[in-house]
Specification:
single chain, about 280 residues, mainly alpha, four-stranded mixed sheet, 10 helices
């Protein structure tokens, strides 16, 4: 526990709290503008709305990298700079103290003079000092822990789909393969697509980018030709639009900003508009 507070104090001393808060404020501005655009552009196509939502989420993912490369504008959000903090009044003990800690120090002195045990006071003094030096770092660690949890959940989902695709059986029916070729030619898709079937899924799933696969549920053998044709066209449209890439980036954005309701709102809106566009 002590090492955790020490690490949090180092993060706070490095100014990570101010940097993170500035990133969150910038991300909020970008997400709010995108959300307002979606509300204003009621007559825009689903593809246009999907682009707006995706662009905003991609922007907040790329923003930390651009912030590291481009010149920064530092604003003191949590008080003065390190130089200003070092110029505060030095107490009688030689330690930098706030008014609350100074008052506590007076109480400790009185307790010692009257013979009362000062252990509760000294413990409270140490606790206040530790909290003051590390609270921003602790918040950052909590945000990072939540992001890692959502990243792990996303990776587990990708692994599950990979296992399903690996164990799926190849579709060999001539009629189904013929419909696949027709949908492929209709959309002028530049990549070959493998058609697979698995009993582990209940809805069609597209997997892969360079060598894509289209997985059908087990009950697809009973589908009429019209339904199969619509499903194939819809799923191949996802491949045509590279929705697998944009979906991965938007999920990363939602995981990184898991605490931000606008990030989840835009991610959900983007998925809905993506389905409508296809």
């Amino acid at each position: 526990m002590t090492s955790l507070f020490e690490f949090a104090a180092r993060l706070q001393a490095a100014g990570s709290g101010e940097i993170t808060l500035m990133l969150i404020l910038k991300a909020t501005l970008i997400l709010a503008i995108a959300r307002l655009l979606l509300v204003a552009l009621t007559r825009a196509s689903a593809a246009t709305k999907h682009v707006i939502a995706t662009a905003a989420l991609c922007a907040i993912v790329a923003m930390p990298f651009f912030s590291a490369l481009l010149p920064s504008w530092n604003v003191a959000l949590f008080g003065g700079t390190q130089q200003q903090q070092s110029s505060k009044t030095i107490g009688a003990t030689g330690d930098e103290e706030t008014s609350g800690v100074t008052t506590l120090g007076t109480a400790i002195t009185l307790a010692r003079a009257t013979g009362v045990s000062d252990r509760p006071f000294t413990f409270a003094s140490r606790l206040m000092r530790v909290v003051k030096q590390s609270w921003q770092g602790l918040i950052l660690l909590a945000l990072a822990a939540g992001a890692l949890l959502f990243f792990g959940q996303m990776l587990a989902g990708l692994l599950a789909v990979w296992l399903v695709a690996r164990n799926a059986e190849e579709v060999t029916s001539d009629s189904e393969l013929l419909e696949l070729d027709r949908a492929h030619d209709h959309l002028a898709l530049g990549r070959d697509v493998r058609l697979l079937r698995s009993h582990r899924i209940s809805v069609p799933v597209v997997w892969g980018i360079r060598k894509p696969m289209l997985l059908l549920p087990a009950d697809s053998v009973e589908w009429p030709v019209e339904r199969l044709r619509v499903v194939l066209l819809h799923e191949l449209a996802h491949l045509k639009r590279l929705d697998g890439v944009t979906l991965l980036i938007t999920r990363l954005a939602a995981a990184a900003y898991w605490f931000h309701p606008l990030a989840w709102s835009l991610e959900r809106a983007g998925r809905n508009q993506c389905e409508r566009a296809c």
